[in-house]
Amino acid sequence: HNGDNKIHKPYYITTPIFYPNASPHIGHLYTLVAGDVFARYQRARGRDVRFLAGTDEHGMKIQKAARAHFGGEAGREKEFCDALSKRFRDLGSRANISNTCFMRTSSDEHHRAVEHVWRDLYAKGYIYKSKYEGWYSITDECFYTDSQITYPTPTTPVSIETGSAVERTSEENYMFRLSALRDALLAHYTARPGSVYPKQYYDNVLGMLGAAPIVPSSGSGSEVAAKSQDTVKTAVLDDFVLSDISISRPRSRLEWGVQVPDDPEQTVYVWFDALLIYLTGAGYPWSSTGSATKQTQGGWPADVQVIGKDILRFHAIYLPAILLALSGGPYSGTGANSSPGTTNSSAIVQLPKTLLTHAHWTSSQKKMSKSLGNVADPLQAMEEWGVDVVRFYMMRVGGRWMADADWSTEQLDKHYKEIQSQLGNYFLRIASPRIAERAKGGAGPIPEALKRIFTDGASTSTSTSSASIEVEVRENHMENEELCDPNALLLRHTLALKGRVDTCMEELEAGNALAEIMAVLKVANKTLTDIAPWARTTPPEVVHTTWVVALETLRIVAGCLEPFMPGIARSLQEGLGVTDAVGETDGEGRESEWNGKEEKMEEIYGEEAMRRFWRRWDGKD
Ligand code: ME8
Question: In what residue span(s) does the Methionyl-tRNA synthetase anticodon-binding domain sit (predicted)?
Fold first, then answer.
């Protein structure tokens, strides 16, 4: 509870729950890391963070894999999932993923949530029984229509989109009235242009709803415009129909799953079940009295849901449709859900806020697949390169979400070296006893100009980019030569860094945040090389100033890096003798902290501290 007596909602982040039918691969780890970067970032800002990961254990795919594993024996799916689910959980721990729960769809609490949703929607008329005819792909766990199928050979129909084999199904199913929710979905999305990010995927979602954004013809930078606008104007296809979807399978085909309430002959379709895990993770079902409060306390609605582009439709169309139906009154005929959410307000289940959608990793430029033998193993990569190097690589290369990235050890090596040269060597040079000795020799008051930047640099600097800082400094140079001192320049960059990282992280641009951090380190390294504090000719007081500015740079960089490389960031902080992330202290506070740190720094020259640092650095601790 905050001062207004309002409930402070936990920040809720989710990743997809993965199918435990095979070992995890780097794609799974990538999504986990993406979620973790935002979870750690929000936590460092003082938010109570809920972070859900887990496994999706029902369905034909798992049933088939489990039976194959046990030589055709039925009924051992749970046992199979217990073992494989653990590998995903362990992957998370190994990679330092800070998820607060690990949910499995086979759990009792999840079954209860699914049953609750089902009964509610059935009672309202959103679920009906029908004969379903169409195609099903076990690999994709997805129903397809005739128009989504192609025949590479006359007897092997496959999905056009994924190339996966499909089989003809003709069976009694329960259907969900997705068609009735199209208008409500469209209204939701046009009012929230930022709800699917990056924008290209937002446009894809509009396309799935038979609409397209109208780009203003004068339109400069439609992306920027779309972000700042409250609504997006769309061109809508009038004859577009969002078809109802099948949400169950006959038990004779699918035994392993949630049984349809009151119908032992049917099993809930795996995706209908899986998507509800996000609700389960937030404590659903919330009892009807005070359910709005319970919902909020549980973290619902999700703030950020990280997904791969392969499962956009499920998350952007199916889940919100289910939630809209849950929130609305009974279905009442054609186009009928005219006003979902206008019933009893405590029953409204809000829609997730942002769907962060990312592209895929390929391996040797190809989609990873067991049959091609090109599946990159995340555990092996972390063993070989260290946890934080793998995390760094994933966000440095894949942190802009849009483009597919190719996994390669050459690239990993390149980024390993980037960390080593830009951060590791910088730290070592600053921590070297010789430099410290010289710095101490020159100890005295920090030059006034620097002190000024330090006390009010971050707040008075209007610069929002590295480039504009350069300009600002160059202009100031005419009036004040001192400001052109390389240390002053670096200090300005350093003090502006946190604000810039904040901006990027608010925009969900993790890759840009990392780029900002690395840009400051580049300036830092250049400053050190230019000043050469190790050279005999450099005056001791300059060495001292350089040393202090470098320490402050490292402190701030460490705080900013924490979401990306938590292990290395902590080693740095320990090495520097600071414990917290980037402090928000005022001028005076900072200064005393700064002075204190100089003393702390002296303590770490002990070999033990360095040994500890390098052990962590190498991912051995
Ligand atoms: O789809 N590159 O599970 P899944 C990047 N159980 N990310 C990748 C990737 C790649 N090559 N391959 C997979 C399912 N991913 C469902 C989800 S959610 C209610 C149910 C990541 O094991 C990416 O996040 O097939 C993708 O969306 C997800 O793993 C699919 O994992």
Answer: 501-581
- Structure tokens that stand for 336 in this block: 């009928």
Q: Are strands 354-358 and 142-144 parallel, antiparallel or unpaired?
A: unpaired
Cα gap 187→182, rounded to integer Å: 9
Tell me the per-residue pLDDT of 101-119, one tens digit each, with 9 for 90 and over: 999 999 999 999 999 999 9
Q: How buried is residue 440: exposed, middle or buried, by Cβ count under 10 Å (0-12/13-18/19+)? A: middle
Strand partners, 101: 52
56 lines ligand 1 (CB under 6 A): yes
411 C-beta neighbours (distance < 10 Å), count: 14
CB 232 within 8 A of CB 239: no
3-state secondary structure of 428: helix
Contact in structure between 544 and 440 (CB atoms under 8 Å): yes
pLDDT band at 434 (very low <50, low <70, confident <90, very high): confident
Structural tokens at position 273: 């079940």
CB-ligand 1 contact for 398 (6 Å cutoff): no
DSSP β-bridge partners for residue 355: 196, 305
Minimum CA distance residue for ligand 1 atom 13: 27
- Whether the complex's predicted ipTM is more than 0.90 is answered with yes
For the chain, helix (H) and strand (E) counts, in that order, are 25, 18
pTM listed for this prediction:
0.89
